[in-house]
Design goal:
By secondary structure, this protein is α/β, with parallel strands linked by helices. The chain contains 23 helices and 20 strands.
Amino acid sequence: MSRSLKKGPYISVKLEKKVSAMEESGKKEGILFIDEINCVSETLAPTMLQFLQCKTFGNQAVPEGWIIVAAGNPPEYNKSVREFDMVTLDRVRRMRIEADFSVWKEYAVKRHIHPALLTYLDLRPANFYVVENDVDGMQFVTARGWEDLSSLMKVYEELGITLTEESIREYLAHDDVAKDVAAYIDLYKKYEDHYGIPEILEGKVTTSIYERLFRASFDEKISVVHLVLSGLHTSFEAVHNWKKITDKWFAFLKQYRSCVMAEEEPVAAYQKLCAEQEAETALRKKQGFLEKDEEHFLEKLGEKLCGACPQTEDVVGKTPEEIFDLIRELRKRDIYFAAASGRQYMGLKRLFAPVADQMLFISENGSNVVWKDEELYASVIDPNLIKEMQEYAKHFPNMHLTLSTTKAMHSTGSDDLSYRKMMVDGYQNDMVFDDDEDGTKLKVIKMSLYCESGIRPYAKEIEDYWQGRLNTVVAGAPWIDFMKPGTDKGAALQFVQQYFQVKKEETLAFGDNHNDLGMILAAGEGCAVSTARTAVKEAAKHIVGSYEEKGVIKALQELLKKQK
């Protein structure tokens, strides 16, 4: 963890928090890194002296086993620094650090610095770190400049923008170096096309390539070698990352197996371990112990773990008579029971068949409300948006698009037999599979994208694309749903409250996922099950047991007891 020290009161609070975080982490040893230490104000100098000598800041002491490392720029680079006096210098061990490309290169490879820049620096290592003063003022090139330029190049390549010498000069503030780099990058790209690097990596090397390389200059040969090595590095890294995920997943599954062997309920045990993994990642992030790459890795792992969670059976399927008897009793007391789900109405009706005539159905994430087979409400999507969605879905070959009407779900463009079987047998949907169906001719109340490996890696991109035009909500690990703006379970519940003249404070709602948030907030008494997503728990007034623990059923039973 690091901290720059410039402002007295502000830093006092921040540093005390960091010391507390070090204690909370439970780590027995570590490094507290303080940047810009020679920019400390004169008023803070005595406190800093005490900190360096005694490893205490106010009433906070640096935990045993932790060491303090500080850094600062020399006066010729930073006019705001001040020289330490002899008393301070006598309490530290000062080392002068010189720029070294070979050392930095190890870091650069791990940080995925653009291969064109690494190749250039291999050929021109003297240009790695340059600080010069001439008649035009100071010209300089630093390690930070190379890293920032690398980030810009990657963004420009993704957007198809040409990198200019002027853009390079914004990061490499040295005219000669910037000009030389610009010329080399152009040459590097020509080498990539000229030698067909992707074909080489696939093992498709022609005799003409060997001949061309044999006649090439030394610099050109070096560049081609770097291009090949960069491609290999990318492939090796992908394999390495998947191995990391596999190893972590295997360790997770070993824990899960131990829980199951200890006779813990399988789904609850899995969800508990996922929650623990999520909490540990959040704590490490809060304490500042996570690098960006590690954070991204753990997020990806969490998505895969969550996406692979065993599916909880429907409450109905586990305890049918119990829930059915509850619904009957509620209706006798003039209390409406509603099943709110992302599922279609017909599928829900079959699940609750014995009592379907005594309850409300809020289906398709709030797009449809049915009472005793009478459609009370349907939120129909603009046909133009349906047409656009059918084209948009083609950009994701690993996903399936469904269009929901009040009668059936329509799937277009998918011949995946396992997916079709899951939709019909697993979800018990009324399905229409038609590759050539024109969705604009349907009365569509909800559209959904299904991704077997998990929708969350794509969710942000999808939500940003449809923002303001469709209401998007992640509805479980593999699903993201699209409704007419303003449509969700919460809006549907408000409609029901108005239609049946039921007050908000007279409404009780249970939920576990993000698509339940609106409903939780619309109810006077919003309840989250213990295995719910964090955001749902935070929005709810009450926490009840999980579905496996019959938390919802027990809560309703308690409600009935109180009414006697």
